[in-house]
Amino acid sequence: MRTRAGDPNDVIADRSVCVLGLGYVGLTLAVAMADADFRVLGVETRGDVIDRLCRGESTIHEPGLADEMNSAVARGALQFAKCVPDGWTGTVFIITVGTPIDAARKSRIDIVERVTREVSARLKPNDLVIMRSTVKLGTTRSIVVPILDRAEVPYDLAFCPERTLEGNALEELRRLPQIVGAIDQRGAARAAAVFQSLTPTVVRVSDVETAEMIKLVDNAQRDVAFAYANEVARACDALGISAIEVIDAGKLGYPRTNLPRPGPVGGPCLEKDSYILAEGLRELGIEPEITMAARALNERQPREVVGHIANVMRRDGIPSTTIALLGIAFKGEPETDDVRGTMAIPILRELREHFPGAHYRGFDVAVKPDDIRSLGLSPCETVEDAMSGANLVVIANNHPFFAGISLSDLATRMSRPGLIYDFWNTFRAADLHLPDRIGFMALGSHGRGKPAGRRV
Predict the structure, then answer these.
(1) pLDDT for 232-271, tens place per residue?
(2) Cβ distance 127 to 91 under 8 Å?
(3) Most exposed among 157, 211, 338, 419, judged by the fewest C-beta atoms under 10 Å?
(4) What global pTM score does this model have?
(5) Could you report how far apart the first and last alpha carbons of the chain are, in Å?
(6) Is the distance from CB of 19 to CB of 88 less than 8 angstroms?
(7) Phi, psi of 451 (to 5 degrees)
(8) φ and ψ of 26, to 5 deg
(9) Alpha-carbon distance 136 to 275, whole Å?
């Protein structure tokens, strides 16, 4: 890597930045940095995204983002482009492009390579490059550095992972500690100074590999925690008791248990980051057994649950003419319209396997009708429309909206016999007064459900 001599504290000039990739990570960061008095150039190759942003339309669902974005544009702190223009005079490049996995569940580095080449072509002496995309262990040093070195100019390089929660990203960018790992001390100091303008706490770690590992471990451990909660749900279903009671009662006032509630585990990070971690570790001869077992359990859940639903429907004589899926985004709280990695997709796939002739509807508070339709569902404007005439209703995410509905009243709109399945235990069977021949089950509480065909 090409470095330069100089005072490591001479970093205050880095106030003009280029954010490459305006997906969720890049756009929220660009807006937050513009609000923190940086001059920000946001670069995105997708023409439709740039067109919408230039019209003042936010391309992602994030509270307050559109207003802050348009305010920053109006005062000249933020602008958008499809590429870095010749003559751009800023000193910081931040790479925030996506890193999906392929069909073989291997990380795709080609997007990072392409953008790094673009940065290398524009690199000026002593620029700072910050990697923020989630990458396989070792990518920054083994792939990014050689590409940047082709510029034959001195530069600084750091890895500073994104760790925000969709639906709360702007607030967390200004509050959460920022991890900074760099190739050398000067790069670490410069990157730390950049992020200290956003958040009060910066955590400097030894090197870029440590920072890469922190990002992957953060998400993999969440996947593992959710998987164990789902394993508890499987055990309680087999035993005929309530997983929610086991979890909630077990941790009440007890500081050494902090198990989350069970439910589908997906999204743009958790569905892939365990695989990215495993890929890098396997190249070092390490098999991440707990990590991979957890991912397999979470991925198996839709098949097991829908299989159980199918058995119950056959047992209770429930037809499968119309099926409604409620909650299409990958999560409901905080609210998002993001369907990347949503578990609604594998749930729907398993439903179609068991009930190929059914008509499928979809409802979500935040997801656009066209996005619902793209999944093969007929979008419904209201939850009433979705449930009317349905034989099976599946609550697939944890949006607070569902906790506020009168499920007993809405169930009167369903065809009978019918069944409601609640993946997130939004409701408790004992509290419901359902119409005759409408059954109810919740994940981890199958034995406490209400079968169809019995007056309740």
Answers:
(1) 999 999 999 999 999 999 999 999 999 999 999 999 999 9
(2) yes
(3) 338
(4) 0.93
(5) 71
(6) no
(7) -75, 150
(8) -70, -40
(9) 9
